[in-house]
Design goal:
Layout: H1 20-33, E1 37-40, H2 45-57, E2 62-63, E3 71-73, E4 87-89, E5 102-103, H3 106-117, E6 125-133, E7 142-148, H4 151-160, E8 162-163, H5 165-170, E9 178-183, E10 204-208, E11 213-217, H6 222-225, H7 228-244, E12 247-249, E13 251-257, E14 263-269, H8 276-280, E15 290-295, E16 299-303, E17 309-312, E18 317-321, H9 331-338, E19 343-345, E20 348-350, E21 355-356, E22 368-369, E23 375-376, E24 390-394, E25 411-419, E26 429-431, H10 435-443, E27 446-448, E28 460-462, H11 475-487, E29 496-500, H12 519-531, E30 537-539, E31 542-544, H13 559-565, H14 570-587, H15 594-615
Parallel strand pairs: 1-6, 3-19, 4-5, 4-10, 7-9, 9-11, 14-25, 25-29
Antiparallel strand pairs: 2-3, 6-7, 6-8, 10-11, 12-16, 13-14, 13-15, 16-17, 17-25, 18-24, 19-24, 20-21, 20-22, 22-23, 26-29, 27-28, 30-31
This protein binds guanosine-5'-triphosphate, oxaloacetate ion and manganese (II) ion.
Main location: cytoplasm
Pathway: Carbohydrate biosynthesis; gluconeogenesis
Subcellular location: Cytoplasm
């Protein structure tokens, strides 16, 4: 039932499913896109071998000599990242997409895209992939079927999702599934030679939230083409989650065990390329602590019967940022890919059949093939790997994967960390004062743009809950949903919310915090706060540690920098408040919850009071933090 069908349109006889809606949809798409052949994927090792061999034969993949069952590939130089300006939320009413999404009327979008899809798979094979986001034995497993004309997508979906025969077996007639249609938009006409990375200059990544349908056209890049990931598990799922009373979030899930063997699970939301994978594979520098990985990109959070929030990782693989990943920063990611069974996209290829990227080792190899397939030497003057180059690798291979990563019930979350990449203003860590204050911090989260999306890098923008590019409905309603979640259970059962920033810089432009494994010190302080055993100082922003409140044992790092990383600078906050005002103004008065407006007013009052206290202080050293530590107010920038 899982072998490829003979050329010709799909039919019920060849399908590994009797689900009439799947079969009729596949037939309909095949009639529109005109593939040479339809293959129902079984997700088997044999299928992986067949497709990867095919990809090697046609020049898309290079089989690596130095890593088992692993492949290098380079995309079209224009198809390297998510395309936010070509990503659409086609809700029936524009007002439901909100100010953060590109909207187009669903009927108009389908009319336009249908013409792009017409004949788009000519000369190619259409693959039909059944997949499940989250454990197969979940109370309500979340199924999807992706149609694609890309072998790269088909094999990547094998890594990233539960797919194939076990899913077909469960996808019985009447079972709900999300329709995920994908074409690279590059038909092959008779005699035409294929290119290594087919795609179209025109791209559409469209979501039809009311129909739970995704149409993606023109790109082969992960976030645009592996539709289980951002399109389903975040955009469509966030809408499902709102309707059903749960949360679909851009979060890692981490298990922490203290030296006293206390186990805690935490989740953390950072924007793309801002440190989720790295924190998910944390190698704690703090003695006696163990960190284990449950997820690195997406968390689905639901209330358990005990009133706590439980998190599940809907994925089965990591699609991680390669540059900056090395034995010193993320040894566990390096060990994961060392085990093979991985796909590397837009990194550099070494002459002996291995991969390399900036930050993997201190010294680059003397010669490489760069991500544009050109000869590269250390004097080339350009990066050998694209800044958004990625590895795609199974989570089960991660040496730090927690045994419970696949548990149907998920893991109970004690703390949620929100964070952004900010060179200024945002302190290393802030503890929220309440759920609603935490939601305010998350709703005003900001970050510098990264190479994970096309467009300018390094521009500060608001990225609420690190979900700006992934919201499946109106951002104001999303904030209200977060506030409602906080009313669903007793306050002491809710995770405590913290706000972090690993990326603050000093006047010398160097990071003020060493990051990576040292982030365990911040997590440890947060967990001690939850247990009531850590000190903190009340500031206008929330509760912050002084450097003395953090466990800095053995940390070889300039402690004045750490004090600077923890500073609340009133001048910086004058600008920040203006930016938050602007952000809230874009949301629209009737959709922005009053609670958040009130939180902003309270923050403004607290900052004003602190600034006037500071102005009245002639000797800055009089304004000392409790415990005799130097106050963060003592070095204002004005
Ligand atoms: N300075 C500093 N850099 C970090 C830290 N953690 C991660 N990074 C760098 O940030 C970049 C992206 O980190 P990732 O962990 O891959 O980001 P992510 O949030 O998983 O990204 P997506 O997969 O795009 O959602 C890499 O270049 C890392 O080296 C940190 O604690 N400090
Ligand atoms: O979706 C992708 O392509 C990769 C990713 O995790 C992100 O951009 O946040
Ligand atoms: Mn991501």
């Amino acid at each position: 039932m899982s072998t490829p069908t003979a050329p010709g349109p799909a039919g019920a006889g060849t399908a590994p499913t009797a689900h009439p809606a799947v079969v009729s949809w596949v037939n309909e798409v095949a009639a529109l896109t005109a593939p040479d052949e339809v293959v129902w994927c079984d997700g088997s090792a044999g299928e992986w071998d067949r497709l990867t061999t095919q990809l090697v034969d046609k020049g898309t993949f290079v089989r690596l000599e130095r890593k088992p069952n692993s492949f290098w590939c380079a995309s079209d130089p224009e198809d390297v990242a998510r395309v936010e300006d070509r990503t659409f939320l086609c809700s029936r009413f524009q007002a439901d997409a909100g100010p953060t999404n590109n909207w187009m009327d669903p009927v108009d979008m389908k009319t336009v895209m249908t013409e792009h899809y017409r004949g788009a798979m000519a000369g190619r094979t259409m693959y039909v992939i059944a997949f499940c986001m989250g454990p197969l034995d979940a109370a309500e497993p979340k199924f999807g079927v992706q149609i694609t004309d890309s072998e790269y997508v088909a094999v990547s979906m094998q890594i990233m999702t539960r797919s194939g025969t076990p899913v077909w077996d469960r996808l019985t007639a009447g079972t709900d599934f999300v329709r995920c249609l994908h074409s690279v938009g590059a038909p092959l006409y008779p005699g035409q030679v294929d290119v290594p990375w087919p795609c179209d200059h025109t791209k559409y990544i469209s979501h039809f939230p009311e129909e739970r349908t995704i149409w993606s056209y023109g790109s082969g890049y992960g976030g645009n083409a592996l539709l289980g990931k951002k399109c389903y598990a975040l955009r469509i799922a966030s809408k499902m989650a709102r309707d059903e009373g749960w949360l679909a979030e851009h979060m890692l899930i981490l298990k922490l065990t203290s030296p006293q063997h206390t186990v805690r699970y935490v989740a953390a939301a950072f924007p793309s390329a801002c440190g989720k994978t790295n924190l998910a594979m944390l190698d704690p520098t703090l003695g006696g602590w163990t960190a284990e990985t449950i997820g690195d990109d997406i968390a689905w959070l639901r209330f358990g019967d005990d009133g706590r929030l439980y998190a599940v990782n809907p994925e089965t693989g990591f699609f991680g940022v390669a540059p900056g990943t090395g034995v010193h920063t993320n040894p566990h990611a390096m060990a994961t890919i060392e085990r093979g069974n991985s796909i590397f996209t837009n990194v550099a290829l070494t002459d002996d059949g291995d991969i390399w990227w900036e930050g993997m080792t201190d010294t680059p190899p003397p010669h490489l093939t760069d991500w544009k397939r050109r000869d590269w030497t250390p004097t080339s003057g350009e990066a050998a790997a694209h800044p958004n180059s990625r590895y795609c690798t199974p989570i089960a291979q991660c040496p730090t994967v927690a045994p419970e990563w696949d548990d149907r019930a998920g893991v109970p979350i004690s703390a949620i960390f929100f964070g952004g990449r900010r060179a200024t203003t945002i302190p290393l860590v802030t503890e929220s004062l309440s759920w609603r204050h935490g939601v305010f911090l998350a709703a005003t989260l900001s970050s510098e743009t990264t190479a994970a999306a096309t467009g300018r890098v390094g521009v500060v923008r608001r990225d609420p809950m690190a979900m700006l590019p992934f919201l499946g409905y109106h951002v104001g309603d999303y904030f209200q949903h977060w506030l409602d979640i906080g009313e669903t259970t007793s306050p002491e059962l809710l995770p405590k919310i913290f706000y972090v920033n690993w990326f603050r810089r000093g006047d010398d432009d160097e990071f003020l915090w060493p990051g990576f494994g040292e982030n365990s010190r911040v997590l440890e302080w947060a967990l001690r706060r939850i247990e009531g055993t850590a000190e903190a100082e009340a500031t206008p922003l929330g509760n912050l540690p002084t450097p003395g409140d953090l466990d800095l044992t053995g940390l070889k790092f300039d402690h004045t920098k750490i004090a600077a990383a923890l500073r609340v600078d009133p001048t910086e906050w004058v600008t920040e408040l203006r930016l938050i005002d602007e952000w809230f103004a874009t949301i629209g008065g009737n959709r922005l919850p009053d609670v958040l407006r009130e939180e902003l007013a309270t923050l403004r009052q607290r900052l004003a009071a602190a600034a006037s206290r500071h102005a009245a202080t002639t000797d800055p050293r009089l304004d000392l933090a409790p415990g005799g530590g130097e106050s963060r107010w003592s070095q204002p920038r004005f």
